[in-house]
Amino acid sequence: MSIKNVALIGGTGTLGAPVLKGLKESSFNVSVLNRQSSKSNYPDVNVITVPDDLDVSKVTELFKQNSIDALVITIAGSRVTEQKKLIEAALNAGVQRVFPADFGSCDSADDKTNEVLPLMAGKKSVRDYLISLEGKGKLTWTSLITAHFFDWGFSNLLLKFDVKARKAYIIDGGDIKFSGSNLDFIAEAVVRVLQRPEETANKLLYVHSHHVTQNEILSVLEKVTGTKWEKIHESSEEQLRKARPKMLEGDHDAGEEVVAVWGIVAADWSDRKGFANDLLGLKTLDLEETVRRAVEKVDA
């Protein structure tokens, strides 16, 4: 298996933009899929204009014309139908590797997680579809489970820290170890997978750039900011009890709260089967350096 030409869809998103940057800095030939009605602009990269409805036959032909070997999907994981169309086109065109939009805070392969967060079911269904295609044509897949987008999480309440207000919402005492991945680290993980196509084929892989507790983060936040933060203690059980019913009724903010909490109490990748930092040659990053950069960006 030899991968040279890589296509990305979702290249202006929170994750897609750094993944595109990482791919452009690699040795791969990079293309971006851009819908016909999109206003997105991608300088210095090959743009493949695709129909808005992602018509499978047309996308198949475009993949063939551009000799695409791998497809990285960084659109929202909830967009199941669109992902399956892209995957079908990839299969038909002889694409060798697909990354579904499985990146993110929680483990869509975990039964308890799927019970707590039904939105994970979409990610699982896409991966199940890929599994069903194994052995058909050249297509293989890799799912990268990254845990919370760590550095990005300081600009919102994903990690339960309000940087501007200097408030820390500490879950269950703050000593739970959890995983998180900086955005550029995830981009590097994608590149490393593509550089190791045989070892990573048809695998669910877990990575993290940080393996920390909230209390460890808070200590560094107080050092970096030179201030004592207000601590608000919360119970994960109580937060989930309050937020989940609202989430199930379609409340977006409640859904974000469930993801934030569950991504702390149930996202320790260090002992997961498939933890792939060593396989991919990835090292954890310095916590203080990440926190300092994140705080400077929020406070700017």
TrEMBL record:
<dbReference type="InterPro" id="IPR045312">
    <property type="entry name" value="PCBER-like"/>
</dbReference>
<dbReference type="InterPro" id="IPR036291">
    <property type="entry name" value="NAD(P)-bd_dom_sf"/>
</dbReference>
<dbReference type="Pfam" id="PF05368">
    <property type="entry name" value="NmrA"/>
</dbReference>
<feature type="domain" description="NmrA-like">
    <location>
        <begin position="4"/>
        <end position="241"/>
    </location>
</feature>
<keyword id="KW-0560">Oxidoreductase</keyword>
<protein>
    <recommendedName>
        <fullName>NmrA-like domain-containing protein</fullName>
    </recommendedName>
</protein>
<dbReference type="InterPro" id="IPR008030">
    <property type="entry name" value="NmrA-like"/>
</dbReference>
<dbReference type="InterPro" id="IPR051609">
    <property type="entry name" value="NmrA/Isoflavone_reductase-like"/>
</dbReference>
<dbReference type="GO" id="GO:0016491">
    <property type="term" value="F:oxidoreductase activity"/>
</dbReference>
<keyword id="KW-0521">NADP</keyword>
